[in-house]
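DM from R.C. (forwarded with permission)

"hey, sorry to bug you on a friday — could you get me a structure for this? deadline for the figure draft is monday and I only need the backbone to look sensible"
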Amino acid sequence: MTEPIRTVVFDFDGTLHNCLIVYEKALQTAWDGLAEEGLVKPRTFTSEEAAGNIGLPFVEAWGRMAPQLTEEQWAPAAAHVGQEMLRLVNNGTAQLYPGVPEMLQDVHDLGFNLVFLSNCKVDYRDAVRRAFGLDRWFEDYFAAEAYGFLPKAEIFTRYVQTAYPGRYVFVGDRYKDIEAAFATGMPSIGCLYGFGTQEELANATALAASPAEITPLLERMR
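My reply, with the result:
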């Protein structure tokens, strides 16, 4: 008999949090600073262009936007993005997607362990945890910075899996989430309402067009 699924591993930005609201503003001001220094050409990011970076490790995101820059050159701008996003989270600008609190409550009430796994920094994890009252639903939090920005699959196998026995489902909106699930032999739910394309989520076990679709999918997978 197959062991039941006990734990749901949630990505955060683009899966629970509509972070484009805060990221787009933060990215534009950081880029403007680089342009003033003469390191990049001035540009205005569209929402679609900014959204393409969400959920990616910093090195990959900045490598896509400014491949001519060294990490030493783009790192201060990346730090600015993080600081500005923190400010906007703390002043109440940030928003979860509509229906996310209700979905998380339903998943929690079904008896699943909810685990947060994100390519984020520790201070960002702590800020959103407070801002949205995530402790109502989540058992544990894993921010990539705390593990040297290891890939999600490695953080999962080294740290998450040892703490929570049983089977898992990964829920996320980018290919990194689906890759982590595949690499660890776990099923996944791709969130079409987030920032990934349908093509990059093609290998997900199931797809959700809204947060409300996640709970019934988990019930069927269980």
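R.C.: lifesaver. The two ends are 13 Å apart (CA to CA).
me: no worries. Residues 71-90 form the longest helix (20 residues).
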